[in-house]
């Protein structure tokens, strides 16, 4: 044991658990540790700091409290004469705040604090120095030891590598010149540990922990700085520069776009815009509107409706036609963009003046590019399955139907296809056949409403030889027998006569048919797909359709939504029909993007059949291969075309009557169409006129 250790040696201050009072035993202890003795054996120590009191004279100290905070001496490192200092010994003494010291006879003679012990090991010029260097070098994190003068007194190679420096440049210099001086001063002044401090300079990018080194009196006598390399920090800095460049590119792109482009956040606040904008629509420079909420501007009557609001409410793409005070028609399209969690993050609004027909050449190039993309999408859709070749769609509603059809592939359940006229119910039936396990078996279709009632029975069930006058002498197989093993599609099943419903029910229940004029039942294995555009539930209530038959065919109902409920399918269908006509007649007609957007806005009461007919009408009557929105708008009638005359029951002033009719019309239009733009289209007036009249009606109602 060297002299330095002997100088640092502190006496063992013991108190006996068997002697009272406790306060007298503790009196006079000036050190931070006391040792507990029981039956003349020292077995544990207590650190004053762990008790949360300032001195051993505190009245809060009790024997029970000492025992609950006692640390067994078995956990404490022991220093003996001629001890060999090893790495395990160093790690052992680092575990507790004190090291016990014994003499040659193994008698406990005192203790030394951990800090004093480690300092002596650092100072000793022998093999211990190498052991400590090995200890520092073995730590993968960088470590710098700072003394009370804030100077670096030791470090390891990992730390030097992380800060890109050398030992001769670091040793002895002020630590604040390398690391954050304010952080270091906070550790010395408060004794607190600072964790996870990011430090980025031109030379380094590291994560730093600052920890105080306290002496035996509890005062900060130095600090340990732990450094972790952060290669990602440099990458983040480079990524920030990349984002800045990307932002400049975005601004450059926005400045060259012909359309008006608005970027709006999920709350409706305008973030940025293109240099080109429609001055007739905005009453001030768009630069003054950046940062303002477009939804609030709509509520304040600056404009209506807000495309941003419609996108937020519906959570999908929205297209509307707006009108300026000067009468210009503006097509505004809002597209939502979602983050990885599916939450709305941005709305991109593109607006174009569709009253002008300038820049057709550039639009034609754009149209051809869009056509190419639609062609690729169509080809991709065709390759999904053989069944989907005839079904053109991109909407989620139709995708759900196709998924349901694929699920039906392994079953022969009866299917009821519901939907308005013209939505493609027969195509759905064909898809079920192609996808199912009966795809190689017969598929027959019969329209129950197109065949006279007196012939429908024989067509469905067949007849025997001589069944009725004029019958085939050899008899005839009905549709059920012809479709044996396959699928029979009963279109317009709501038109089937009541007396035949009973016979049809027997086929479904017993899987057998009795031909007209026959007496013997013939077994059949047929999957039934029925379709109707009628409300069979209501027909059951009215007694025109059997309830038992309804439940028998309504095993797997599939509702095909009308085109107005899946407007995103319209551009793809329009392109499909136009391409077929181009191929048939050797032409090269194209829609402009505005024309497709206008078709998407229309409600299509006749569904796909109406759309197909309109595309052919546009194809035949167009003077130019480029079909524009202006040309399309001539063939679309927005709103209700039905006209009814208002009923007049008494004489009132003409002006009062006009105001009364106008108020009713405006109110009815707003109730039905919800937005002033759609109401204006239905009423044949401008959107601004509807807004003004609504305001006037509101004021009149308040006055009354």
TrEMBL record:
Superkingdom of the source species: Bacteria
SUPFAM superfamilies for the chain: Homeodomain-like, P-loop containing nucleoside triphosphate hydrolases, PYP-like sensor domain (PAS domain)
Family annotation (InterPro entries): AAA+_ATPase (IPR003593), AAA_lid_NorR (IPR058031), Homeodomain-like_sf (IPR009057), HTH_TyrR (IPR030828), P-loop_NTPase (IPR027417), PAS (IPR000014), PAS-assoc_C (IPR000700), PAS-like_dom_sf (IPR035965)
Domain Sigma-54 factor interaction as annotated: residue spans: 391-620
Residue ranges the record marks as coiled coil: 357-384
Domain PAC stretches: 314-366
Official protein name in the record: HTH-type transcriptional regulatory protein TyrR
Organism field: Lentibacillus populi
Lineage start: Bacteria, Bacillati, Bacillota, Bacilli, Bacillales
């Amino acid at each position: 044991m060297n002299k330095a250790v002997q100088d640092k040696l502190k006496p063992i201050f013991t108190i006996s658990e068997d002697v009272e009072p406790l306060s007298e035993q503790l009196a006079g202890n000036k050190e931070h540790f006391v040792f507990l003795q029981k039956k003349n054996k020292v077995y544990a120590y207590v650190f004053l700091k762990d008790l949360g009191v300032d001195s051993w004279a505190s009245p809060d100290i009790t024997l029970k409290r000492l025992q609950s905070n006692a640390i067994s001496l078995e956990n404490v490192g022991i220093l003996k004469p001629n001890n060999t200092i090893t790495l395990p010994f160093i790690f052992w003494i680092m575990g507790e705040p004190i090291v016990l010291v014994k003499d040659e006879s193994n008698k406990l003679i005192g203790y030394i604090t951990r800090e004093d012990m480690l300092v002596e090991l650092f100072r000793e010029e022998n093999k211990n120095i190498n052991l400590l260097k090995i200890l520092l070098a073995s730590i993968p994190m960088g470590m710098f030891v700072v003394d009370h003068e804030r100077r670096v007194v030791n470090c390891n190679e990992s730390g030097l590598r992380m800060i890109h420096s050398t030992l001769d440049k670091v040793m002895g210099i002020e630590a604040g010149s390398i690391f954050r001086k304010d952080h270091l001063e906070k550790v010395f002044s408060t004794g607190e540990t600072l964790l996870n401090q990011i430090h980025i300079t031109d030379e380094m990018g590291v994560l730093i922990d600052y920890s105080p080194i306290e002496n035996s009196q509890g005062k900060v006598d130095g600090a340990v700085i732990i450094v972790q390399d952060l290669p990602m920090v440099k990458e983040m800095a480079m990524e920030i520069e990349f984002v800045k460049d990307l932002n400049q590119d975005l601004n450059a792109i926005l400045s060259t776009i012909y359309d008006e482009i608005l970027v709006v956040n999920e709350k409706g606040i305008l973030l940025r815009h293109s240099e080109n904008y429609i001055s007739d629509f905005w009453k001030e420079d768009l630069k003054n509107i950046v940062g303002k909420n477009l939804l609030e501007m709509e509520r304040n009557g600056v404009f209506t409706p807000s495309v941003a609001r419609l996108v937020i409410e519906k959570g999908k793409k929205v297209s509307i036609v707006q009108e300026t005070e000067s009468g210009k028609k503006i097509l505004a399209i809002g597209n939502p963009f979602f983050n990885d969690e599916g939450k709305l993050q941005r709305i991109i609004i593109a607006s174009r003046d569709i009253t002008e027909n300038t820049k057709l050449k550039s639009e034609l190039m754009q149209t051809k590019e869009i056509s190419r993309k639609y062609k690729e999408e169509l080809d991709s859709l065709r390759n999904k399955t053989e069944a989907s070749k005839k079904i053109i769609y991109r909407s989620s509603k139709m995708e759900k139907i196709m998924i349901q059809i694929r699920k039906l592939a392994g079953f022969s359940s009866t299917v009821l296809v519901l939907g308005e006229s013209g939505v493609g119910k027969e195509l759905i039936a064909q898809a079920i056949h192609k996808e199912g396990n009966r795809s190689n078996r017969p598929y027959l279709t019969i329209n129950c409403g197109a065949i006279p009632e007196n012939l429908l029975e024989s067509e469905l069930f067949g007849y025997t030889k001589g069944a009725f006058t004029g019958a085939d002498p050899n008899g005839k197989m009905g549709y059920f027998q012809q479709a044996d093993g396959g699928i029979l599609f009963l279109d317009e099943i709501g038109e089937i006569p009541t007396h035949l419903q009973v016979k049809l029910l027997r086929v479904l229940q017993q899987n057998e048919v009795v031909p007209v004029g026959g007496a013997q039942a013939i077994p059949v294995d047929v999957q039934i797909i029925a379709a109707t555009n009628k409300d069979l539930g209501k027909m059951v209530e009215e007694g025109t359709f059997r309830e038992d038959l309804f439940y028998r065919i309504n095993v797997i109902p599939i509702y095909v939504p009308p085109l107005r409920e899946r407007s995103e399918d319209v551009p793809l269908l329009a392109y499909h029909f136009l391409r077929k006509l181009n191929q048939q007649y050797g032409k090269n007609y194209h829609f402009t993007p505005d024309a497709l957007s206008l078709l998407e806005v229309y409600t299509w009461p006749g569904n796909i059949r109406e759309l197909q007919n309109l595309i052919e009408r546009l194809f035949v009557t167009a003077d130019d291969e480029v079909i524009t929105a202006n040309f399309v708008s001539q063939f679309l009638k927005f709103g209700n075309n039905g006209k009814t005359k208002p009923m007049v029951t008494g004489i009132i002033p003409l002006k009062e009557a006009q105001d009364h009719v106008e108020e009713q019309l405006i109110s009815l239009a707003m109730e039905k169409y919800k937005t002033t733009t759609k109401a204006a289209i239905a009423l044949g007036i401008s959107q601004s006129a509807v807004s003004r009249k609504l305001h006037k009606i509101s004021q009149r109602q308040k006055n009354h």
